[in-house]
Specification:
single chain; 433 residues; alpha/beta; Lyase, Ornithine Decarboxylase, Chain A, domain 1; 31% helix; binds pyridoxal-5'-phosphate
């Protein structure tokens, strides 16, 4: 059983992804290589948007969190599938404009929007700013006033949920660089301030409690805290929110031990909670938005590398070094993230040796995954694949050691096409004066 249903082996043991031979793709496009299964992306979009529409009604919506994988073709696919967009920088806005996305359905996030960001977002017609703090609120009011316009905003609220202990807690995540906490009174204070800004229209509230969340209660508890906050805001100010944006965070499977969650059923449970609490509190049902990133693209991705060296340190371990590394996938170096690693060629019954899969960067922490089983015969020129790399890999890639970023090759209906070309040495010096 492979970690995802778009991975398989052909009759000669060669790895396939989205119905295409990994070996042939590596020969055609070179390595390191990002593969993206377009059909899986579309399937993920449809499943989440379908559930939101089913359980929240037509007013409900899904925003693709572009930070998970942002390039023009990807944003265009999300838009074609009817998703709005979560953007966090002028670069992501520019990409969205190039992709032809509907900027009126774009939500601009971030805890430190510069004056340039604000101006660029307003120029591009971004529908909503998600305001993180007071400094930003007044900077926005100022810019909207200068333009003689009224800008729609949401406030980013910290509900005090710790997604790792799965309990509502009064401290901990309150101490975060994002948002204003309910517990400290900052959220109510910001609401009152926003309501007093004549050039801002407060449309509602946003929260995002974390990522890789596998427990449904985290989503339902978060929703309950947010509705409770909205009801208390209405009691104190008379203001009723029109939008509740609950962020992203659905967990995806990287390794066999990860749970397989049924996202539509999580959405159903969250909707039931919200509808019940709004009914009980006689609160008009807000338009509910979700912002999935990882769960749209993670399992649509696979990275392919060529082995450059296999080194056995007697009595210690085996290292298999590949032609990419933390430059195209920094997630192990950053968070110790787990991944499933596969050899492109596997002969049934072949002996396996555990090894650390490492990159080619001048940095000891340049590890893709520790202690993975790979064929004992693994040697220079063999191909290895890292599964589930569609999210936060290409978008987090760097040019450390002046390594060019790999291309992104899309796969659909057994065909392939390049969506992002390989970065060349010339590209790497293009900005040098
Ligand atoms: C505000 C916001 N929304 C959505 C997301 C997407 O989260 P995920 O990729 O876990 O679905 C993030 C991720 O950091 C975020 O910060």
């Amino acid at each position: 059983m492979f970690i995802c249903d778009n991975i398989d082996r052909d009759s000669s043991g060669g790895l396939t992804f989205a119905g295409c031979s990994v070996k042939s793709l590596a020969a055609r496009f070179g390595t390191p290589l990002y593969l993206m299964d377009e059909d899986k992306i579309r399937q993920n979009c449809r499943s989440i948007l379908g559930a939101v529409k089913k359980y929240f009604g037509d007013a409900g919506g899904v925003l693709y969190a572009g930070k998970a994988a942002s390039f023009t073709r990807m944003i265009a696919i999300a838009a074609e599938e009817g998703l709005g967009l979560d953007v966090v920088s002028s670069g992501e806005i520019y990409t969205a404009l190039k992709a032809g996305a509907d900027m009126g359905n774009a939500f601009f996030h971030g805890n430190c929007k510069t004056d340039r960001d604000i101006a660029c977002a307003m120029d591009s017609g971004v529908g909503y700013f998600v305001v993180d703090c007071e400094d930003e609120l007044y900077a926005l009011e100022e810019e909207a006033k200068r333009r003689d316009t009224v800008q729609k905003i949401l406030l980013r609220i910290t509900p005090g949920i710790d997604p790792h202990t799965f309990k509502a807690v009064a401290t901990g995540v309150v101490d975060s660089k994002f948002g204003c906490a309910i517990q400290t009174g900052a959220a109510l204070d910001m609401t009152e301030k926003a309501l007093s800004c004549p050039h801002l229209s407060l449309e509602g509230f946003h929260c995002h409690v974390g990522s890789q969340i596998f427990l449904r209660e985290v989503f339902t508890d978060t929703a309950a805290i947010m509705i409770g906050f909205m009801i208390s805001v209405r009691e104190k100010t008379g203001y009723a929110a029109r939008i509740l944006d609950l962020g992203g965070g659905f967990g995806v499977r990287y390794v066999q031990d990860d749970p397989d969650i049924d996202i539509p059923s999580f959405i159903e449970a969250t909707a039931q909670k919200i509808i019940t609490l709004c009914d009980d509190g006689n609160y008009p049902l807000p338009r509910v938005m979700l912002e999935p990133g990882r769960s749209i693209v993670a399992d649509a991705g696979m990275s392919v590398y060529t082995v450059g060296a296999v080194k056995d340190i007697e009595g210690y371990r085996r290292y298999a070094a590949v032609d990419g590394g933390m430059t195209d996938n920094p997630r192990y170096a950053l968070y110790g993230s787990a991944y499933t690693v596969l050899a492109e060629k596997e002969i049934p019954g072949e002996q396996m040796t555990r090894c650390d899969l490492v990159g080619r960067c001048c940095e000891s922490g340049d590890i893709i995954q520790k202690d993975v089983p790979l064929p004992s015969s693994l040697k220079r020129w063999d191909l290895v694949a890292v599964c589930t790399t569609g999210a936060y890999n290409y978008s987090m890639a760097s040019n450390y050691n002046r390594l060019g970023r790999p291309p992104v090759v899309m796969l659909t209906g057994g065909e392939s096409y390049e969506a992002v070309r390989r970065e060349t040495d010339e590209d790497l010096t293009a900005l040098d004066l």
